[in-house]
Every structure is written in C-alpha cells, then in structure tokens.
Design goal:
Layout (H helix, E strand, L loop, with lengths): L1 E6 L4 H12 L3 E8 L3 E3 L2 E5 L3 H8 L3 E4 L3 H13 L3 E4 L6 H11 L4 E4 L5 H16 L4 E8 L9 H14 L4 E3 L11 E7 L5 E9 L2 E9 L3 H14 L5 E3 L1 H5 L2
Parallel strand pairs: 1-2, 1-5, 2-4, 5-6, 6-7, 7-13, 8-10, 9-10
Antiparallel strand pairs: 3-4, 8-11, 11-12
Helix pairs in contact: 1-7, 3-4, 5-6
Bound molecules: nicotinamide-adenine-dinucleotide (NAD).
C-alpha cells in the first residue's frame, strides 16, 4: 500500500485527489495539511505550521502539494527533509522559488513537478512543440481561461506553453494583453481570461496571411488532473532520488 498525504487537502484539487486516492486499491489517504486543521475522509488535516510533526508521526510514502507557491516551497522543504517522495502540482513559482525547490529535492527524494497533470495536456504540449518547430515565422498567441478564484496568471500551463514555443522558435519577448497604439513585432502575445467556474482552457494560435492554425485543450473537470496525479504517485513511489516529469510517468 502507498500511504499518501496531501498539502492543500481542503482545497479544490486537494479534495478531488483525496477521493481518488481513497478509491484506489493500492493507496491509503493518511491525511494532510492546510491553513486550518480539520478532517477529510476520516483522516486528520493539520495546520501547515505542524507539517514536520505530521510527517514524523504519519510517515507518508508520498506527499502531494496543491497549495500556493510560497506555501509549496516550505512544504516541499519539509517533505524532502523527511525523505518523503513528492508530487507537486502548485503553479506560479518565481525563478528564485524554483531554485530553492530544486536544491531541496536534489539528491534527497524522488519528485515530480508538473504545471498540468492531465494526460491530454501532456500530449497537447507535444503537438504545440511540433507546430512551433515548423511555424516559427507565424504570429503566435497564447490564450488561457480559468475560474474566477485562480490566483496566479498566466497559468502554469500557459507558462509551460510559452517555454516550449520559445525553445522551438527562439522568440523570447512576451506581450501580456494589448491596449492603445500597438504594433505587432515578433513577440508572443499572452491573454488571460478569469471567470465563473472554467476549469482550464488553453489555446495557441499560429497565424500567417490567409491562414490560422488553432490548437486548443479544454479541461471539463478537475478529475483529469487528479487522475494524472494518481499515476504520478504510483510512478514516484520507491524511485531513486531525482526530479522526474510527466513525460517519464506517461512514457511519452
Ligand atoms: N498541476 C496541475 O495539473 C494543476 C491543476 C489544477 C490546479 N493547479 C494548481 O494547484 C494549486 C491549487 O489549486 P486549487 O484550485 O486546488 O486551489 P484552492 O485555493 O482551492 O486550494 C489550495 C488549498 O491550499 C491551502 N493552503 C494555502 N496555504 C497553505 C499552506 N501553507 N499549507 C497547506 N495548505 C495551504 C488553502 O487553504 C486551500 O485549501 C494552484 O497553484 C493551481 O494553479 C495545478
């Protein structure tokens, strides 16, 4: 059995993942951490300040984090110190935070960090990479939409899309929305929509005179991310220390 704990257990993704963990034959949900203490599916959820005691007492095999960037950095450090395998879905890390995270993980625990755990998005990233390889001279725009409560913008998934397009086209300038007198140059345009209960929409446009290629991915339910997380938990459990990706998990 894989004992699984969740940071952000009482959040939208945390609760969705906890239900799937408790339904899996090979996993046990052993509780988690959130801003306020509580219980979830009969397991304890402790305050984030008590994470080290929780990890020592409960000894999970895998610690999942879906919180907020500054909190995730501390949770990852605590998990790495306790020797617990990590599956991190939190987005919005600064470069500096990412450096701290990578240093905490290196040589100590196996970990997977992904801005999007859906199988479909991981295929979508490959499709966008192939398109960008061939369409570097097309005007490129990234558009994303999420629910009204999402805190970071653009989304981690959109940031991954931008990294992929930059790697393949060499375009490094991003323009976030446009207003007033604007002249299109060789930038990548980035557009963010926030509203209602949109789970996660991403579109990449490659446009030239007389034609547009539009690639879109739409998530209808958080379960698509949670199912990928379950696969990541199975993959990372018992692996040697190091940073793995969803490409490894899915064998892409
Ligand atoms: N990688 C993916 O596939 C994927 C998919 C969806 C969302 N996300 C990301 O996951 C994160 C969470 O998203 P959400 O929609 O569940 O948000 P949410 O606000 O519903 O949940 C976050 C939870 O974290 C808790 N939290 C805050 N600080 C904490 C701390 N110090 N310790 C423990 N818990 C703490 C909050 O109280 C809340 O319950 C966001 O960064 C989001 O962008 C990633």
């Amino acid at each position: 059995m894989i004992n699984v704990a969740i940071c952000g257990a009482l959040g939208r993704m945390g609760t969705t993942i906890a239900h799937l963990v408790s339904e899996a034959d090979d996993m046990t949900f052993v509780g988690g951490v959130d801003v306020k203490a509580g219980t979830l599916l009969g397991a304890p959820v402790v305050e984030s300040a008590d994470i080290r005691t929780f990890l020592r007492d409960v000894k999970p095999d895998v610690l999942i984090d879906f919180t907020i960037a500054h909190a995730a950095v501390e949770n990852i450090r605590a998990g790495a110190e306790a020797g617990v395998a990590l599956v991190v879905g939190t987005t919005g890390f600064s470069g500096e935070q990412r450096t701290i995270i990578d240093a905490a993980i290196e040589g100590s625990v196996p970990a997977i960090i992904s801005s999007n755990y859906s199988v479909g998005m991981n295929i979508f990233w490959k499709l966008v990479r192939e398109a960008a390889q061939r369409l570097g001279d097309y005007d490129t725009e990234v558009i994303e939409a999420h629910h009204r409560y999402k805190k970071d913008a653009p989304s981690g998934t959109a940031r991954t899309l931008l990294e992929i397009i930059t790697e393949e086209t060499g375009k490094t300038e991003y323009v976030y929305g446009r207003e007033g007198m604007t002249e299109r140059k060789d930038e990548i345009g980035v557009h963010v929509i926030r509203g209602g209960d949109i789970v996660g929409d991403h579109t990449v446009l490659f446009t030239a005179n007389n034609e547009t290629i539009e690639l879109s991915h739409r998530a209808y339910d958080r379960a698509v991310f949670a199912h990928g997380v379950i696969r990541a938990v199975r993959f990372v459990s018992g692996k040697p220390p190091g940073l793995y990706t969803m490409t490894d998990v899915l064998g892409l």
